[in-house]
Amino acid sequence: MKLPFIIIVDDDEQVLRAIQRDIRKKYNSEYRISATDSANEAVELIQELKLKNETVALFISDQRRLEMEGVKFLEYTKEIFPEAKLVLLTAYSDIDVAIRAINNLKLDYYLLKPWNPPEEKLYPVIIDLLDDWQNNFIPEFEGIK
C-alpha cells in the first residue's frame, strides 16, 4: 500500500511552514505530507488524489481564509474522503464555529494556534487521530496482483 496523505491548508505562509515543518518532523516516513496556502489548490489536489485512488488519513485546515472557510473546506473533504480525520486550526476561540463543526461535520479536533510546544499540544492530538484512523481504515480491495 502506498503511503497515505496528510493535507494541510492555511493561507498564512508562516503558519503553513511551521505546521508543515512540525508534521514532517514527526510523520514524514509514514505519510506523504502535502501543504498549500490555497483552498482552491487543495480542492484540485483532493480531486486528483481521488481519481488516482489515493488515501488521505488527515486534513488540517485553518478556519479563517479568504477563499473558503475551513469548515466549508472540511465538509467538502468529508464527501470525498469520509474516512479521513479532520482538524480545524484557528487562532480564535470561536465557540459557534466549534459547535457547528463538531455537530454538523463530526470534527475530530479543534486546535488553537499556537500549538507550541508541538510535543505537548500538537503531536499527542495527531498521534491519537492517526492511530484511530489506522485502526479503523479498511483499504479498498484492488484485486489480486
Q: CA-to-CA gap between the ends? A: 12 Å
The description of the largest β-sheet is: 5 strands, parallel
Helix content: 40-55%
User: Can you identify the CATH superfamily?
Assistant: Response regulator
Radius of gyration: 15 Å
- CATH 2nd-level architecture: 3-Layer(aba) Sandwich
Beta content: 15-25%
Number of helices: 6
Q: What is the general shape?
A: globular
Number of strands: 5
What features would you describe in this structure?
- The chain is of the alpha/beta class.
- The protein has a single domain, classed as 3-Layer(aba) Sandwich (Rossmann fold).
- Helix content is about 45%, strand content about 20%.
- It is built from six helices and five strands, in the order βαβαβαβαβαα.
- The protein has helices at about 15-25, 40-50, 70-80, 95-105, 120, 125-135; strands at about 5-10, 30-35, 55-60, 85-90, 110.
- The chain has a five-stranded parallel β-sheet, sandwiched between helices.
- Helix 2 runs parallel beside helix 3 (about 70-80) and helix 3 runs parallel beside helix 4.
